[in-house]
Amino acid sequence: LTPIYLDCDTGVGDALAIAYLLATPGIRLAGIGTVAGALNAAVAAANTLNLLATAGRDDIPVAVGGYDPVDGPRPGTPGHGRTGQGRNGIGDVLLPRSRRHPVDESATELLIRLAHEHPGRLEIIATGPLTNLAEALYLDPELPRLVRRVTVMGGAVFAPGNAGKFAEANVAANPEAAADVFAASWPVTLVPLDVALAHSFDETHRRALAAAEGLTQQALAQMLGTCFTYYEKHFSTRRMSPHDCLAAAFATGDLDPERMPTLRIGVDTTAGPRRGQTYFAKVDGPVSADVRNGQNPHEARVLLSLRRDAAPRLLERIL
Ligand code: BDR
Ligand code: CA
């Protein structure tokens, strides 16, 4: 079984990704670390523990990680509620409370330990800001050598940003961390907004989850319901892109890429309006100052499109 470390900020999208991974054969979710992003890391950990308890998976360790030192939500702040995911980040759904607590290690420590326990085998999936991954790189320079691949839901190539005009939320929350994670010498696959926005869960998917017998599926349906109500009010649509779930599904080999160039990535870490924007350049082309960003240009696979609609596949697995 391929060991997976998931780093997330458990809101609705991340919850779908967790449910997806729990149902995926051939892998073992060896640990989950939380990070501040859509909500603070402690609330994300509580959501994660409760979701795992609902799914009967109290065997998976959950560790609390860092919060964005710059302008992220601070511990004690509930979900900011701006994204339509409710005050608790999971659509105000009240999950059965887990009897467990987060483990004593930090998310960073958990990641480093798992990497050493599974040298050359651990896959990292990151569906939140990259704070914990960057911290792990600072603490253990050997990490890139030990990890098989890092799959990041983040960035935007041609698509506009979703945290302001230019930046995608996970990169925007901690651009320095993202730059360091992209620049490290481990293989990175990026799942940017471009591919995420081409796929969505809608009422059909929500209804299928609501009709399922499992409590987890029913809870996910309620979460989607909260999001849809918000999106309907603000954007006149009842659909939502399963960003994080796509990253999870791609990392576990479940999706068929159509366009996936290897590109050089840079991150804007200035204090200006483009802070958090990702820049891309062809590997054999000229590298602009933006992409260089004062660092060695780093190459990553960037998933731009899939051959088929991913939603039916994601739904089938979660069901
Ligand atoms: C990212 O922001 C979060 O709200 C989602 O879970 C996803 O990780 C998309 O920009
Ligand atoms: Ca997320």
Which features would summarize this protein structure in a list?
319 residues, alpha/beta, two-stranded antiparallel ribbon, 13 helices, 37% helix, binds beta-D-ribofuranose, binds calcium ion, Nucleoside hydrolase, IUNH, Inosine/uridine_hydrolase_dom
Describe this structure in words.
With 319 residues, this protein is α/β, with parallel strands linked by helices. The chain is 37% helix and 17% strand. It is built from 13 helices and 11 strands. The protein starts with a strand and ends with a helix. Residues 69-81 have low confidence and may be disordered. Beta-D-ribofuranose (BDR) binds at residues 11, 13-14, 38, 83, 127-128, 153, 162, 168-170, 243-244.
Secondary-structure blueprint of this entry?
Elements: E1 2-8, H1 12-22, E2 27-34, H2 41-54, E3 62-64, H3 107-117, E4 122-126, H4 131-139, H5 143-146, E5 147-153, H6 169-173, H7 175-183, E6 188-191, H8 193-196, H9 203-210, H10 215-235, H11 243-251, E7 257-259, E8 262-267, E9 278-282, H12 289-292, E10 298-302, E11 305-306, H13 311-318
Parallel strand pairs: 1-2, 1-4, 2-3, 4-5, 5-6, 6-10
Antiparallel strand pairs: 7-11, 8-9, 8-10
The protein binds beta-D-ribofuranose and calcium ion (CA).
Residues 11, 13-14, 38, 83, 127-128, 153, 162, 168-170, 243-244 line the site of beta-D-ribofuranose.
